[in-house]
Amino acid sequence: MTRMSLTGTRLLVRRALRADRWFWLVWVLVLWSFLPATASAYRAIISDDAAGREVAVGLASNPTMRAILGPPYDLLQVGGFVMWRVGGFVATCAAIMAALGVLRATRAEEEAGRTELLRSGAIGRHASLAAALLTATGACLLLGLLIAGSMTGLGTPLTGSLAMGLAIAATGVVFAGVGAVAAQLTSSARTARGMAMGAVGAAYLLRALADGSSEGSGLRRLGWLSPVEWAPYVRPYAGERWWVLIVPLVVSAGLVALAITLESRRDFGAGLRATKPGPAGALAGLRSAGALAWRLDRGSVLWSVLGFGIFSLVIGTLSNVFDQVAEDRTLAERFRRMGGGAKLLSDAFYVAMLGILIVLIALVGLSLLDRLRREEDSGRAELVLSTATSRTALLRAYAVPALLVPVALVVVSAVLLAVPQAVRDGDPGALARLAGAGLVQSPGVLLIVALAVAVHGLAPRLRWLPWAVTAWSVVVNWIGGVLGFPQRLLDATPFGYLPRLPADAMSWTPVVVECLVAAVLLAAGWWGYARRDIT
């Protein structure tokens, strides 16, 4: 790579910061806030007495908790507990932030034609990629600095705070490299995002499998293959292993070098994976807006089914450890609290897991509907509307899959979550029971997607609103109970009032009410979309 190929990098960094400043600022501040907030709630969870120490030992030895949250090293220190409870989660989210940020500044800009306009001036071949990587690296380092500073300010040791900040930042930098490589493989920003998010999901699943396995098992070594596991392996506040940071640095350098090499070998505007030309005439099944939408989204749907299915099946195998949990009354009580107060620990486990999965599945629905916005921005929706296709038909083509696919995903995930227990106990009825529990929670997903439809039809500039609602639901489901949120805040999500079977008794009122509200929002969105300008 010559110096000429990097000409204009500084200018493009400034442009990236100007164009995506809110993207980076919101991500960094939200992720940073998790750690000091959790630290402030430490004593409410681990008391400074024999009972608190007993709880810490029980949490550290429980394979289910390890699989969900990662390896614990020293839960009797504030910093060690924070790293275990939210450190791995923040590292995984930092990976998502960095990968998406790089793709926004590279493949998405190239697909939109703005990179071609910039490169018509004195801009080097690799300047856009270098600027995106520098911006993402800077955001990750800023996140690490905020984490280290705030944890030190809360009285935790400086060395542990620095190790935590650097470990989380390094995880983000690795996936900035992953995003850079994905940007070279395909000409579609959507496909590149799918590749990057698939890599994050695979890394998290590998980490859960390694941490949930028994001590001394060969599966434990698989953790070294997961980049989101390297942050906990640095062991902040528990005898820091600084040498582990070399691993993400070396991998990041290798990924960046690979991305630059691939960019040198591909044509501008194309990916290394060539796009095959379609047939001259459309098949009978492709002569409608709905068929077109399904053709565009089928890859994302299939990968979502595969990803959530594998994750649910693997996590479901952890249901065989509850006899160990039941021996510790304090730990069992805390686990019941996570599971909505269910009497049986297995029921508490399923309630807790569905609470996490249902929010992530809502993101799939929002992503499917967001395809319509991207089609409008690119001008392709206007071409479709220039035919005999009506506004209503076009919106229906994208809204119906966005509503139905997440519900199907909920049912599939719930059933696969129960498969290990059903096989072990010879109880096929467990599959139907958990499928019903998932369906009862699905109105929350429908409400989020319906809100997105209403926003798209009535006020497109507020498209961030349904994403913000979903993000708030993630925060509540993941750490709301740990931080001691008031009940009114815990209920302030689309899922807060829905019955959490089998922990709660079935109540049809919130289910019917949320479905009716979703129907009203859908009608409002359809009405607005039929009347607003397509811009």
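(the above was protein one; protein two follows)
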Amino acid sequence: MTWLRALKETGRSGLSVERTRLEPLVAVRGAAGVAIVIALSLWLSSPAVAASSAFGAFAAGTATFQRSWRSRPVLALAAGTGLAVSTFVGYLAASHLVVFVLLLAVWAFLAGMAWSLGPTSGIVAALTVAVMMVVVTLPTSVKDALGHALVIALGGLVQAALILLFPIRRWGRQRDALADAFAAEAAYARRLRQDPHAPFDPEPLMTARSAAAVTPWQARRRPEELHGKRALAERIRPVLASLADPAVGAAEEGPERDRARELLAAAATVLDAVARAIRHAKPVKLPKEVNAFLEIPEPEAELTGSARRVAARLISLLAAAVESANGSGPSDATESAHLLRPTLPRLVPLAARAMRHEMRWKSAVFRHAVRLSAVAATGYLIGAALPLGHGYWAPMASVMIMRPDFSQTYARGVARFVGTLVGVTVATGVMQAASPGVYLCAALAVVCIALMYLLMRTGYIVAQACVSAYAVLLLGMGGSQWTQTVPERVELTLLGGVLAMAAYAVFPAWETPRLRDRLAERLEATAGYTAAVLEGFADPAKRRSSTVREALLDARAASATWDQAVARADAEPVRHRGLSRRAAQDADTVLSAMGRVGMLMEAHLPGRDADPVPSAAEFARVLRETVAESAQAVRDGEPPRWDAVRAVLDGWQGDTTRERMVRRGAELQMETLDEFEEALRSRSGIRPPPP
């Protein structure tokens, strides 16, 4: 992506407001928390303390809006505690410039490493660094610093209390995630009616799995309709694909295909109704004709063979989904045992282990932590040396925009500067025109933060404008004149963005050169999923249900990592000489087809009492070994070779119906391997192997 195009995309996304993602009541509740803390501080203390407490309440409220499946009160308390600790520790070192800069560098490094725990932890940790640089300038003694730290922690406590006292859509995010999974399958069923080979995006199912992970406390309070129902959505997905595919399901033309389309349409209606019921916590409402469809014990006579069996299984699964959404269906008792989320005390050793794992030179998180530490310390020293007030704004801007990948850092840097310019200009006009007092400044600041909470999930530029206006009004409430803040804030924000971009130029961590590694990982994971399914046919009696499931999750994770890598690489100002964009697209298409082969075969896995298919075991073993070697060849820029896999397929033995079906799946797998090799050779400039 060119720089100009990146600027256009940033402006378009930063200014767009998606009404469907707005949560007005939640935004009002968060702003009310800030208002309560400011009012109490003004009543009991001074405007300076009120400004300090407002930063804490604002940051704690911001933490509750992050995309996390932990309870919002826990997020608010954790953010408030972290901010209070960073403020107090920072003040203890603030009187000595060298000591404070060293502390700032260490704190910023740890904040960067917090990304190993996820985006929410990384963003909240960055807030603690930013607040450390701002709030340490307000107290005048250790006692005052302790008081400021306590009022900051109070901000988190107030936000958590408001969430508990005024709950809005309990378990709403989890409901939406599970409903989105069923809605995605409904859309998939409709696409299959027109295109039997339509692709399926597993992201809603992956999100639903993340949302299903709960702490023991949450597991005891989770609504019945959210317990164990995700497994039904997972089982419906391959059955839909198998019914629509002409190779293993309904015939390509004729009455059988017409009947399959009717079943898919009815399935889409049922899945949409289940999604609505889960989202709004209401019973499932189905049209009469669809109810009749679910009551049929078996499909009509137009379907024969495997298509008839798959259709019967689909009807059974849909009926179970309707019953489960109504709270009367079976639940997966093992789901909560496998998806328990650790509590905060138990998270500490896990966090330490995750950080140790990322402490390596090639880790994107480690390199981000090094960049963040260097930029925070350097920016603070530059800001202190410049003849400007509020020099901490430069490193604060850098810390808040920097991300482990270049594309987000660049987009947020541009958006932050534009939003800052707009927000400061508007707030300055208000300050000049109205000359508001302390209480009016506080009220206007609360309005700005309410707008920021409302819009922060849509347009970053718009939200940043609200934050900038909030900061100007808050500092005005604390006694700073607008002439001290406006020009300096704009100039130092620009300086902070330049420092962040310079850090990437000096110490880059481009995703583009690692595309081959990501492609090799996806090849191994996708082929491993197909091999696991084949092994299920090889020895049904010894098959573990978790084996195929774990392989599928690995394949999905590798696919998501690949998609993220490609998106980041497209936004980077570098190009990969060994893997063209067209080659990456072709390889992605082929690997998606490879995963589809495994999905189709998974829908036909036999019971434990079925006869084994010995040839499937040999094919799966050789497939794993050959793919491991070929993945290394992809990393080295060499063409993969599939001779061993082809030899096993040529020697396949067995002529029963199941063996022929499994062999057909192996043939489809072989076709995708050949297409993968062709995609890399024809588009990447790889030389073919010598004869």
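Reviewer note on protein two: The CA atoms of residues 286 and 413 lie 49 Å apart.
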